[in-house]
Amino acid sequence: MAQESRVEADWKKTFFLIWTGQAFSIVGSQLVQFALVWWMTEKTGSAAVLATATVISILPGIFLGPFAGALVDRWNRKLVMIVADGVTALTTLGLVILFFTGQIQIWHLYVAEFIRALGGAFHWPAMSASTSLMVPDKHLSRVAGINQALQGVLGIVAPPLGAFLMGLLPIHFVLSIDIGTALLAILPLTFVHIPQPAKKLEGMVTPRQVLLDVRDGFRYISAFPGIMIVLGMATLINMFFNPAFSLMPLMITREFNGQAMQLGIINSFFGVGVILGGLGLGAWGGFKKKLHTSMTGLVGMSLGVLILGAAPSSLFPVAVAGMAIVGLMNPIANGPLFALLQSHISPEMQGRVFTLVGSLAGAASPIGLALAAPVSDLLGIRFWFYIAGMVCLAMGVSGFFIRPMQTLEDDMGTNNAVQAGEPAAVPAAAQD
Hints:
mainly alpha
């Protein structure tokens, strides 16, 4: 019993030391994102500029994410996280200098968004895959709940804090905070040990080998039709959801005559919703089938978006309520699905699989963003929110009636049972 207590204390000390540093880094990143988005909104008032910035920020995850995941499964994950945080901090430093000297241009922000997103494309799979090796299986759900709560708290605090700081300080001082928080994330990583997969991929990293690794990841998930259908649904939803929320600053200024503080308020209530949704899911536990819980969350998110789009210009609190509902249902939609994947996918495959899932789910987002700007300028921003809500509602309802989705958990459980004691690189159903 004493030995077990020592082991419990050891993993908690190591993991939460890293987790705390990463939490500070996320605060800095959210402040930077808020400051840059609002600066672009004030300077240009252009839907095209905001949509372009969003496209640039998601392109690395979509096109380079799978290759980043394959490399993460081969490289030292601790070093990957240190380099990713460091590159992000240096990029922000460049922006600080450009703003301070008055030489900043919109294209500078586009370049910075791309580099920061590239760092995230490596950092996220490295941290996600490391978590499952650092945290005992019986505590993974608790850690997932803590992460959801963290996102909710930061969603409440960061937007109004960003709005307050933007009104108080020059933007280069606000951006400087991100450099300090990145250092707080890097420092713990230099002193702790992060385990690697027992079957960590070895050998020289060549372009051909990376492509083969990506292929193995795709074969792994394509062995389960239910996952492929879920990804198809997520692709359609993201095609309309991402543009809607990238245009939120213009929704605030054009439809509600608001300023930075109103944008901060509505984003904060999204964070309140996320916390309540995460706590509610933790207390409730969800339906027996995790995907039923996720589909319920999608239906709830769709209703929140429709309320947000329909809110009268004179009733900003109605829009805030709609955003809170979206936040409330977000962990209910995403949490069970992520837990399903994290608990059933072999550790040595997680880097590739997680990035592939993210890339495929977001593959159509650039198309939606390319359409959002002209459609919103022609028909109004609210129109895009109506489309996003209806698509999400259709996907959520249909998910209850698609058989491969209903049997996905049983299929993945069966596959794990077959491979018990001798984990394979890909599911048996996908092997040559």
